[in-house]
């Protein structure tokens, strides 16, 4: 599934929910897209292999504290997911980052070496049950207001 730069949902649709697309293999979102979405959800997509989000997407205001408390990112229970790439300024005003049960996720790249502001206002960052994770690359100013970052593996 590919969305070009400047893609938007109807302003009454506040949740970008991919969960109904059970056979989705790839998500590509261009730059400056879906600023009105306040919740991003991909849960139980067992065929999903990659997620690529461009710059300044899923962000209402790059530098604003306003409305951050209601914005959430959930990527969970996607057993084939191998990579997550998020461009600079995307999800800047999100308060929740939830990455759980992604057993084949090898690489997470969020932002770049220059100012990124990704998940700038998130308070608690949790990476739960990502046993194949090999690469973490976070841009400058990602998770700026985080109080804690937690990595946890579940032993079966």
Can you describe this structure?
There is one protein chain. This protein is mostly beta strands and 156 residues long. It has no helices and 12 strands. Strands 1-3-5-7-9-11 form a 6-stranded parallel beta sheet, with no helix packed on it. The chain is globular and about 40 Å long. The mean pLDDT is 91.
Strand order of the largest sheet: 1-3-5-7-9-11
Structural class: mainly beta
Mean pLDDT: 91
Share of helix among residues? Answer: under 10%
Secondary-structure map with pairings?
Elements: E1 2-3, E2 15-17, E3 26-29, E4 39-43, E5 50-53, E6 72-76, E7 83-86, E8 96-100, E9 107-115, E10 124-128, E11 135-140, E12 148-152
Please outline what is shown here.
The chain is mainly β. It has strands at 2-3, 15-17, 26-29, 39-43, 50-53, 72-76, 83-86, 96-100, 107-115, 124-128, 135-140, 148-152.
Features:
mainly beta; six-stranded parallel sheet; 156 residues
């Amino acid at each position: 599934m590919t969305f070009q730069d400047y893609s938007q949902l109807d302003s009454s649709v506040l949740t970008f929910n991919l969960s109904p697309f059970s056979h989705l293999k790839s998500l590509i979102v261009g730059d400056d897209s879906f600023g009105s979405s306040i919740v991003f959800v991909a849960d139980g997509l067992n065929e999903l292999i990659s997620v690529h989000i461009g710059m300044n997407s899923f962000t209402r205001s790059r530098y604003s504290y306003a409305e951050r408390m209601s914005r959430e990112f959930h990527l969970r229970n996607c057993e084939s997911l191998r990579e997550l790439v998020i461009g600079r300024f995307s999800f800047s005003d999100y308060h929740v980052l939830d990455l759980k049960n992604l057993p084949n996720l090898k690489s997470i790249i969020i932002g770049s070496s220059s100012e990124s502001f990704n998940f700038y206002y998130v308070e608690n960052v949790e990476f739960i049950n990502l046993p194949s994770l090999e690469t973490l690359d976070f841009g400058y100013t990602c998770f700026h207001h985080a109080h804690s970052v937690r990595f946890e593996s579940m032993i079966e």
